[in-house]
């Protein structure tokens, strides 16, 4: 209970109750003052008007009217007094003139009640044409009773408001504390290594749900990155195991060599295996960096046509040595938001892959913004069987056609990763003969090579 009383929702509820109390009190004070002033002002105006009208009425006639006003008039007069010019009382229930005879209303305490206490009243005294004085008065007891009733009504209304606000604060605090406790327990489980745990989310749309949903998304990304790191480590260990074992065996044979030339050849072969292992590590680390999306922060406007022309110029001599015809079909300019170095690397991987698998006399075509594809590389090689198009973008995967072709099985995976970094997907299809690789800007499921 003490924890709930210290919670923010409860403090907010108390503050809300305080604000409601202050505002309600201010409104009541204004209404109370306005009603009280209006009642007293009305009594003043009535008495002054009555005194002014009666100033010129004959004494005998006014006595009858006063008797009627004392008994039957709803706007009754509680006190009347008709005095002779000498000041002697001639009629009424007032024994003496107690206010100035100026025709104005005066607030005074008169007369003593049964208990000897005076009561508030308003009196008006006005001098008549015959020299006498007419005094009219009305008790404010009813007005004060109305004021007292208003005060009690205010107290009867404000207390439930405060209690309801506090009760609402306790209920809201309990519900919020329960939710925060559940979230805290889930976070503690995550901190203990249970990365599959997620923060509880309700169907209602509120700030806590939005925060829990954002944290859950962050946990999903953390799990993805952790799995990615684990995958990178497993891939490195798997692919380095064989070359390192071969390297060790060669070095052991070299240590037993009887001639320096044999030892030198063994060391050179071991260095080749070591370079291959280092290349695999570098490629995997680069792919891992790309998958984290860190390079997206450096995106800027890039001319994709210019990038493709540069890559084409770089690989055209390589294709010429294999007697492969290369064709470039790009628009004059094709601006896009991206990383120029990564785009150049992705296009280079696709062109290099196409040249590797295209036999002499074949052709390789590089196109931009054709057939709905941002980048399109086609070749006339052996092509890709439909059953393998779901696999060739995986790391270290080597198709049957790749037997005897140098490579690590990482180039297409890197190109696909760069495509995803730029909001595209890389897909493979047949070219009859050969294969086609396309970057498409939509998020349609890619076909893996």
Amount of helix:
40-55%
Radius of gyration: 50 Å
Unreliable stretches (pLDDT < 50, length at least 5) are 443-449
Number of domains: 3
| Inertia-based shape | rod-shaped
Number of strands: 12
Q: Under the CATH scheme, which architecture of the largest domain would be assigned?
A: 2-Layer Sandwich
How would you sum up this structure, described in words?
The protein has nine helices and twelve strands. β1 (79-83) and β2 (89-92) form a beta hairpin. The strands form three sheets. A five-stranded antiparallel sheet has the order 2-1-5-4-3. It folds into three domains: 2-146, 2-Layer Sandwich (Beta-Lactamase), CATH 3.30.450; 207-291; 298-440, Heat Shock Protein 90 (2-Layer Sandwich), CATH 3.30.565.10. It has helices spanning 2-5, 8-54, 59-71, 141-191, 207-255, 260-291, 304-321, 340-357, 411-421; strands spanning 79-83, 89-92, 102-112, 118-127, 133-139, 300-303, 325-329, 335-338, 363-370, 373-379, 425-430, 435-440. It is rod-shaped. With 449 residues, it is of the alpha+beta class.
Write the topology of this structure.
Elements: H1 2-5, H2 8-54, H3 59-71, E1 79-83, E2 89-92, E3 102-112, E4 118-127, E5 133-139, H4 141-191, H5 207-255, H6 260-291, E6 300-303, H7 304-321, E7 325-329, E8 335-338, H8 340-357, E9 363-370, E10 373-379, H9 411-421, E11 425-430, E12 435-440
Parallel strand pairs: 7-9
Antiparallel strand pairs: 1-2, 1-5, 3-4, 4-5, 6-8, 9-10, 10-12, 11-12
Helix pairs in contact: 2-4, 5-6, 6-9, 7-8, 8-9
